[in-house]
Amino acid sequence: GTTPLYLGIDFGTSGARYALIDRQGAIHSEGKRPYSPVGDAAGWASSWRAALFQLIDDIPPTLRPSISSISIDGTSATTLVVDSETGELLAGPFLYNESFPDALPAVASIAPANHTVCSGTSTLCKLVSWWNAAGGGSAGAAVLMHQSDWLLWLLHGQYGVSDYNNALKVGYDPEAGAYPSWLASQPYAPMLPSVRAPGDPIAAVRDDVCSQYGLSKECVVCTGTTDSIAAFLAARTSEPGRAVTSLGSTLAIKLVSKVRVDDARFGVYSHRLDDAWLVGGASNTGGAVLRQLFTDDQLVALSRSIDPAAASPLDYYPLPRKGERFPVSDPDMAPRLQPRPESDVEYLHGILESIARIEAKGYNLLRELGATAVEEVFTAGGGAQNDKWTAIRERVLGVPVRKAEQTEAAYGAALLALKGAGRRVGVQS
Ligand code: ADP
Q1: Mutation choice for ligand 1 from 345, 386, 389, 390, CB with most ligand atoms inside 8 A
Q2: Is the CB of 248 under 6 A from ligand 1?
Q3: Which own/partner pairs from 232-235 qualify as long-range (CB within 8 Å, at least 24 positions apart)?
Q4: I want to staple 346 with a disulfide (CB 3.0 to 4.6 A). Which of 74, 156, 262, 341 is the partner?
Q5: Cα separation of 279 and 240, whole Å?
Q6: Count of beta carbons in the 10 Å neighbourhood of residue 15
Q7: What separation in Å is there between the alpha carbon of 299 and the centre of ligand 1?
Q8: How far is the CA of 426 from the centre of ligand 1 (A)?
C-alpha cells in the first residue's frame, strides 16, 4: 500500500501489543505476544527483545514498507543499565514493581521531601542502589535506560535519549525542562539520558533492521512514554477538563489540567502532556470487589434491573482489603459493604453508586488541590461496558460520561508515532 502508517508498540505488565494506524487513526493491523522470560533478570530483557521483533514480524509484509514512524511505551520505572560502548546489559532490568529500600536514605538526603523519587520503586532508587553496590568507580560508559528507551534503542541504535514521562521517576523536572541541580550534581548524573517530549523523532531505523524486516529506510523511531500515559493518549482527550476514568480492578482517574498538582499524601502527581498537565490519582476501590461478590455474567444480568435514575441510599466503601490512599488517605480504612439488602439488584446498585461517589470525590479533591474542574469523562476498563453504571456515574458526577473508543496503550503509542512522523529528526519541540 501507499498510505503512510504509524506503528505503536506497548510493553505492559503481561505482554506486548502493537497497533498500526493511518493518519485518520484507523487501525490497519494489530496483534500481541506474551513474554516468556527464562532464568534471571536478563531473561526479561531477552524476552522483550524477542517479543519486539516477533511483533514486527507479525505485521503483514505488504504493510511494513508503509510504516513512517514507530514509538514504544513501557512500564514506568522499569530500568536497565547498559554499556554504551558495547551495548551490553550491565544490570537489570529492574522491574517497575521491584523495590530498593536500601537506596532510600541516600535518595531522601538529596531530593526534596515527598518527591516522587522518594519511593523504593522509583527509577532513582534503582540507579542509586546499583551505583552503591557495583557502579561507583567502574561505571565507565554505563548509561541508564528505561524499558521503552531500551526497546527503541534496539531499533535506532543511538544512546542517551528518553522522554519526560519516563524520566519523571528518575527525578527529571518536566516544568523546568531539566534535571534539578540536586540530581545533576551527583556522581552518577552522566548516566542520565537527555530528555525530549514523547513522540519526538530520534533517528531512522537501523539499516540491518530495515533490511531484515522490510521496513522503509525513511522510517523514523520516536521517543516513547509510559504504559499508563499511552493508555490515556489512546482516548484522544487532550483538552483541559477532559478526563479518563479507568474502571478495572482498581479505580484510576486522569484529568487534563492547566495547573500542575502534586500531593504525596494522596499519591497524586502530574505528568507533563505537551503544554498541559495530566493529573492522576488511584483508589483501591473498583472491579476487584465486584469480582469477589459476583461473576461477570451476574454483573450483566443484575445490572439490567437497576434503575440508574434513582439514587441508591446505600452508603458503602468497597475495598478488596483494608487501606485507602485516594481520595481519602487512610492506610487503616476498613472495607464497608454492610448492610447487605436481600435483593442482589439493590446491593449491586448500592455498590456501583458508592464507587461513583468515590470517583466524584476524587475529581473534587483534584479540583480542591488546584486542578482544572472536570467537564467530561471517558471510561476505560471492564467497568466501561456497563451502561447502567455509566448512567449512574453521569448523575453522580454531573458531567457527560462516555466509553472511550480506544483504550489500548499500543494505540496511544501509535498516536505518538503519528505525532513524530511530521517532524524533522533532531529538531526539539
Ligand atoms: P484489570 O485489567 O485492572 O484487571 P479490566 O479492565 O480487565 O481490569 O476490568 C476487569 C474488571 O471489570 C473486573 O474487576 C470486573 O469486576 C469488572 N467488570 C466486568 N464486567 C463488568 C460489568 N458488566 N459491570 C461492572 N464491572 C464489570
Answers
A1: 386
A2: yes
A3: 232/278, 232/412, 233/412, 233/413, 233/415, 233/416, 234/380, 234/404, 234/406, 234/407, 234/408, 234/409, 234/411, 234/412, 234/415, 235/378, 235/380, 235/404, 235/405, 235/406, 235/407
A4: 341
A5: 11
A6: 14
A7: 10
A8: 42
State the Cα–Cα distance between residues 81 and 201, nearest whole angstrom.
23
Low-confidence ranges of the chain (pLDDT < 70): 1, 135-139, 424-429
Phi, psi torsion values for 420, nearest 5 degrees: -80, -20
Most informative mutation of 10, 246, 247 for ligand 1 (most atoms within 8 A of CB): 247
Grid cell of 222 as nine digits: 520516536
User: How far separated are the first and last CA of the chain, in Å rounded?
Assistant: 30
Distance from the alpha carbon of residue 342 to the mean position of ligand 1, in angstroms: 24
- Closest residue by Cα to residue 22 from 63, 52, 60: 63
Ligand 1 near 12 CB (within 6 A): no
Please give the distance, rounded to the nearest whole angstrom, from the Cα atom of residue 241 to the centre of ligand 1: 25
Enumerate the β-bridge partners of residue 21: 6, 27
DSSP character at residue 178: B
What is the per-residue pLDDT for 425?
Answer: 61
> Pairing relation of β-strands 15-21 and 27-34?
antiparallel
Q: Whole-angstrom Cα distance, residue 61 to residue 189?
A: 42
Distance CA(91)–CA(129), nearest Å, equals 11
Is the C-beta atom of 293 inside 6 A of ligand 1?
no
Q: State the alpha helices, DSSP H only, in 287-328.
A: 287-293, 296-304
Q: Are 203 and 221 in contact (CB under 8 A)?
A: yes
Any ligand 1 atom below 6 A from CB of 287: yes
Q: Count of alpha carbons within 13 Å of 189, Cβ hemisphere only?
A: 13
- The residue written with cell numbers 506486548 in the block is 16
